[in-house]
User: Fold these one by one.
Assistant:
Number 1:
Amino acid sequence: MTTASIDVERGVDWGSLLRRYGWTTGVWLLLIALIAFYASTIPSFGSFQIASIAKNSLPLVYLAIAQAVIVVAGGIDLAVGSMLIFSNAVAAQLMDGQSLGVSLMVAILVILMAAAINGGVGWIIYVSKVPDIVVTLATLFIIAGFALIVLPSPGGGTSEGFRAIFTGSTSGTGSNFWPALVMMFVPMLAAARWMKRSRTGLSLYATGSDATAAYLSGVSTLRAKVVSYGVGGAFAALGGLASLAITGSGESRFATASNFTLRSVAAIVLGGVALTGGVGSVVGAAAAGIVLFVLSPVLSAMGVDPNTAQVIQGALIVLVMMVAGVVELRRERAE
Amino acid sequence: MTATPLLDATAIAKSFGTVVALRSASLRVEPGEIHALLGANGAGKSTLVKILSGVHRPDSGEIMVHGEEYEVRTPRVAGEAGLGTVFQDPALIPDLTVRENLRLTDLSPDEVGTWLEHMDLRSVDFDSLIRDLPLPTLRLLDLARVLTRGPSLLMLDEITAALTADQAEQVFKVMNEWKDRGNSVLFITHRLGEVMRMCDRATVLRDGRDVEVCIPREVGEGGLVEAMLGEVVKATPEGSAPVERLTEAPIALEAIDLSSSDKVRGVSFQLRAGEVLGVAALEGQGQDRLFEILSGSRRPDGGQMRLADGEVLDARSPYDAVRKGVVLVPSDRLQALLPKRPIRENLTTPLYNRIGKWFGLAGDEKTRVDSAVERLSIDIRAGKQAGRLSGGNQQKVVVGRWLASGFRVLLCFDPTRGIDVKTKQQIYELLRELADDGAAVLLYTSELAEIPLVCDRALVMYDGELVDELPAEDATEQALLTAAHGISEEVA
């Protein structure tokens, strides 16, 4: 503490900013590089491809945000994939043949329902003191089961207007990429701002970072748990609605649920969210969700065999983690 | 003192499982006073503070604030009642910035900044992460945050332990100002010089009870130490090895100028075969770090360790240290044991490295374990799982597994914490016996009274340095405590 009484006013500390947001920035740069590379490998790259990437990555982006909110607060939810197919199934049954207005009402109800159910799961975890991973492993099966009960075989539908909200066209395919981008960025930035600016959002970081210190500061750790799971459930429901809008009908296969869950965990890890809680942002997780989605078309454009592509996806995650580990180690050495 | 006391806690009791932290402690703080809460390690000071701040709920007892009965359920409720606490570990979130921490607790950065400036701490960047800030800054930041809430009783749990002298001065200044405003301060510290200088009254806790309320300036430091210790434990005659043997015995472990950030600073000592060398220190003087280094858990920033015959010990992990015969008995027994596995298996853990043949255990396995069990009189019928044993028996298993594997240097870090008197005695006899058989034992204990009973020599550690060395006959509890408080160095 020889530095007491230096300058009071100081400029922006770029070093510390880069350190805090370095990972998020890095993932977005990786995404941009991937898309640029993709654009150079295929004969024509234009608004159609942008729209395609934007809308088709929506479900995973929402799910990555859902998982990020929960993991930042110190939990983990293996059932986000189930919540996605459950919301998808309920919405497909209720929206089938309805007008846009009714579809929107249903959408809001589905989101609220998912938030309430998942908030309840968070409450159970807190009160029972059973580890998050155990409780949500159980709800992974339970909620997926309810999805099958609601929609035993693929079917149902939605209104054309509703499809256009997420995809930019009533048929689900087209070149208008703005709606998909808006649906991606508005919820993402809203969630990011809420997490970092509101007291409730900060209490999620606090609880995930150091639950004891949070409790001593007067934070309600119960509330943080319930809110994080509730918000996570809402985003998982958004994912279900997005996939309904993309395909135009519902489906509730368990394989979809478990696959989505695993990819949501991969996305947050790649996106810089620490599985131990308290570190990371939904913006990074969302970018990583798009990266994971874009990777398959990029690799197939490069002529990589789809089976090999799986290996490369996994290797990418390990590689990013290792690079981050080395950077962190060097920083600690330097200090 | 006829006015209503600001805080009146009566007969507070609290147990954690089978461990009794507070038996019946009462504390009365008047408005406008600085009140010291004193006691040896484990006397219950921190528990009492945590109860008053709503972290723990008392099992029994009554708390009155401003003459009204008061149930402190959570830290938030305590804050609303005007009880503000700076805990031993800062209650700041490591992964958030200073600004975000303040927003989390709904405090204005400007007001907190004003307090920091008042304490002459101007260099805090509110946009830096808490985990990047040094501990003293966090302490003062936590204090500024609590002051911003304007508590009528400010509770400071060992706040000066991590502060430099000039930073401590700033805290004292604030304490006096707080008192002049008609508020009160409850001050916990191990530094008696600070108590003499700052405090109007003192309550002394011992073994979970309040044993004395006094005015420090009247009783003096000696009086405070006496009250903290209570009756002197009767020394057993058996014990110390003949002094002349020590100088002849070969060196088993030598530390040369060890250092680790500012926790351990230039520590050198020689530990000879056949002796029990005691380390006396108050909490947080760097002894944890020293034992981490010696046991191979952490590499020192500087200095060297040597074994017998001058062989350099450069341990990268406890595995390396254990292979060289340097083994650790930690205070947290469950850290060393596999609580869910059988006792026998726990005893053989260190032998796993020897299963080079991979087919079953080495031939002498059973004999080694049996002799360890017998020697320590471990009650192996007590349970299939080591975790179900009593604390004393668990600790015996920890020592026993090193007996089974063999060692040359035994590092014991507070091995008798939370163990009953009889088992304590057995463990001490065992340490003596091991030393008489030629082992070298380095023993840190938080109970200073034990040192003259077991040790041949005692080192005193204060603020990361070895400040004193006493032969067993001079290492009375009083002498150790005086040295451990760094009193000879205290200016005040």
Note: Chain A is about 75% helix and 0% strand.
Number 2:
Amino acid sequence: MSDQNSNPVRDAIADAIEQHEVILFMKGTPDAPACGFSARTVAALQALDARFAAVDILPDPRIRQELSALSQWPTIPQLFVRGELIGGCDIVTEMYESGELATVLGLEQSDGAAPADAAPVAGAPLQIENRLS
Amino acid sequence: MPDAADIKSRIEAAIPGARAEVEDWTGGGDHFRATVVAPAFEGLSRIQQHRLVYDVFGDEIGGPIHALSLTTRPQ
């Protein structure tokens, strides 16, 4: 549909999803989530000591718009593993509790680890808007 | 502005055989939590189940409905 127009935001999002095995699009950053749903999703990943890239969608409204168009998923956060949408806060939390999240991520889940107790392990957040000319 | 009863009836009208329990999470009319049980979910992944519910509301999700937290199951 938009083939005749270049879409640098969507291209940057698609590249980021392709280039990072585990990537979370969220409001705010892992250290300073700007929404409770994003915070809960980060906490589940951190409870598993998962390494993940994070993109803050707030600085540019086009990021959210294009991400949702690409993923066909209306809400934030969105977690992708190996290029596939895993889900948002509800699904990630459910999968954390059932142990499926650890399986999808190829990690061991230690018993009794509560998301809130986790230490942050995420690297610096990706800055998609900075990559746009 | 939608209320919990409105969201419940729209989900139940749109998805065959669905039963929904919806609560207004914050009392502010924009954060809702819903549990939806529908035979139509059988055989679908969680992502696909949630998409069926989100599709009922289209652009309202992220607009007037700021958040719709979902738990879905086939029965």
Note: The beta strands of chain B are 19-24, 31-37, 67-73.
